[in-house]
Amino acid sequence: MSEIAIEMIDVNKWYGTFHVLKNINLTVQSGEKVVICGPSGSGKSTVVRCINRLEEHQKGIIRFEGNELTNDPKSVASIQGEIGMVFQQFNLFPHLSVLDNLMLGPMKSRGLSRAQAEERARHYLDRVRIPDQADKRPSQLSGGQQQRVAIARSLCMEPKVLLFDEPTSALDPEMISEVLDVMVELAQDGMTMVVVTHEMGFARKVADKMVFMDEGEIVEQAPPTQFFEAPETNRCKTFLGQILQH
Amino acid sequence: MTRLFISLLGLLALAGCSSSATWGWYVIDPTTPSGWTNIKFLISGMGATIQISVIAALISIVLGLLVALPGQSSKRGWRMVNRVYVEFIRSIPLLPMLFWVFYGLPIIFRSMGLNIPIDPFWGAIITLAISDSAFTAEIYRSGIQSIARGQSEAAQTVGLNYFQTMRYVILPQAIRRILPPLANQFIYIVKMSAFASVIGMQELTRRANELVVTEYRPLELYSLLILEYLVLVLIISAGVRWLERRMGSDERR
Ligand SMILES: Nc1ncnc2c1ncn2[C@@H]1O[C@H](COP(=O)(O)OP(=O)(O)OP(=O)(O)O)[C@@H](O)[C@H]1O
Ligand SMILES: [Mg+2]
After folding, report:
1. What structural domains does chain B harbor?
2. Which of A14, A18, A198, A219 to mutate to test the pocket of ligand 1 (most atoms within 8 A of CB)?
3. pLDDT tens, B128-184?
4. A212 — contact with chain B (CB < 8 Å)?
5. Of the bound ligands, which one is closest to the alpha carbon of residue A218?
6. A82 neighbors A160 (Cβ within 8 angstroms)
């Protein structure tokens, strides 16, 4: 727990004149689990998407394992596959079978043979507990199963860091826990994780650090016990009051 | 609609047979030797029309993709290249472009010291392909844009580069929406290939024109000409509908 995986220093981003991210400072140690929460529109997705270069930032420094990430395509390419991402809407490839969804990245960007990629894919399908759905199309699976396939697809790249952007928000309530269970296991295995979620039970269980964002700023950063027992700011108190009621 | 048109044509033909003073269907009467010779002469243009159309369509399919891809770029300069090409090519009427390619382009080649003759066949193909590529490019664009952005983002996060993303993720999904309009565009090419007659290409329209000059029977000969295009287009339409059905059932699977 000593190496720094991701480092954001005074990161700022604008959409036109709209200031989405204001002086974001965030450090993620290797093996650390960081949970980001905050009201809708506060910039949580944008932070995560800046880390894996789906969005460009305009000011400040983002480093991945000590190397600065810039907007130039080489920098974008350097992290491709190293930083995995699980999306709210799964974003599985609908024209491919579950197995092919998992094998595409390892074969095309890691240069694995078909046999190696398939072995790896089956291994991770096992880990997310759907070994028997390999030949189905994503549309034939339930939402919870689809999201677990998406997690397995990320794992097949054997990334250094895994980002989650509200992975359970699009799921029916009864399917949330099957996805969270898989995520807890990943956390226990030592994966470095940055998770945007409002699942506070999950956060309490796995988070090393809680981050609260509002209006493009990181308002509070603290270990979970301190964060939940004694939030410092009123904004954070109000927010926690609202979501813990449910 | 097309059935109605065919029966109208048939009616016209019947009317013609009844009063032979104004009508001269004998020029294309298959029961007389000269009529049969004329019909064979007219239909023998079919091969050239089909060849020109198919080759031009194939080139346009590739060219259109090459024009469409920079249009998807995040770089403004690349998008400009796409916009300028599409707007410029789309605004040129086919006939002037045909003249420019057939009579003008060889002069450019010669000034560059190249000896590339352009015959009517390739002149027609180049013109049709370039003119059509602006439309195919737009078809690709809307097809690609219909695939949600999450797909290319997911592809990027599993390490695919731009071309891999297009090749393995975007185009296989977009193809269902691209193929039917592309096939429709093929109908447009077949019809526009008639212009090739003016630079001396021996295709359907040219053949009809030549017979009209010797037989003085424009109504009958052009009626048959229209019928020939109609048959071609009906065949392609049937193909398009078959394709759409296949694609549709694929999507539901
Ligand atoms: N492409 C864009 N162009 C302009 N504004 C955008 C764009 N994407 C996001 N925004 C704005 O930036 C702000 C932050 O968006 P972001 O998606 O990061 O919020 P969030 O905290 O993830 O919210 P949510 O909980 O709703 O997902 C929002 O106000 C949003 O409207
Ligand atoms: Mg969000």
Report:
1. 37-244 (1.10.3720.10)
2. A18
3. 999 999 999 999 999 999 988 899 999 999 999 989 999 999 999 998 889 888 988
4. no
5. 1
6. yes
Within a 10 A sphere around the Cβ of B226, how many other Cβ atoms?
13
Closest residue by Cα to residue B118 from A182, A27, B109, B176: B109
Closest protein CA for atom 31 of ligand 1: A41
- Which H or E element spans position A213? strand A209-214
Q: Is B157 on the interface with A (CB under 8 A)?
A: yes
Give me the total of CB pairs closer than 8 Å, taking one residue from chain A and one from chain B.
66
Distances (CA, A) of B191 to B3, B37, B211: 19, 25, 20
The CA-CA-CA angle for residues B244, B247, B250, to 5°, reads 150
Ligand 1 centroid from CA A95, angstroms: 29
Over residues A35-62, the pLDDT tens digits come to 999 999 999 999 999 999 999 999 999 9
Q: What is the ipTM of this complex?
A: 0.92
3-state secondary structure of A221: strand
